[in-house]
Amino acid sequence: MGRLAKEQEIAERLGVRYLTGPATHSILFSFVTLVASQERYDRMLTSALAKGFTPENSEFLALDNRNANRFDGFDAMRRALVEARGRYIVFTHDDIEFTHDGAAELEARLDELRALDPDWTLAGNAGGIGYRRGKHHLAVHIDDPHKLGLRVTQPELVESLDENFFVMRRNRPVVNSYDLEGFHFYAGDLCRMSEIMGGRSYVIPFLLSHHSGGTVDEAFPLCRSRFERKYRRYFVGRNLQMTVAEFRFGLAGMCEGWGETPKSRWDFLKRNVYAPERSGVDDT
Amino acid sequence: MGRLAKEQEIAERLGVRYLTGPATHSILFSFVTLVASQERYDRMLTSALAKGFTPENSEFLALDNRNANRFDGFDAMRRALVEARGRYIVFTHDDIEFTHDGAAELEARLDELRALDPDWTLAGNAGGIGYRRGKHHLAVHIDDPHKLGLRVTQPELVESLDENFFVMRRNRPVVNSYDLEGFHFYAGDLCRMSEIMGGRSYVIPFLLSHHSGGTVDEAFPLCRSRFERKYRRYFVGRNLQMTVAEFRFGLAGMCEGWGETPKSRWDFLKRNVYAPERSGVDDT
Question: Using CA atoms, how far apart are residues A261 and B201, in angstroms rounded to an integer?
Answer without folding.
Answer: 12
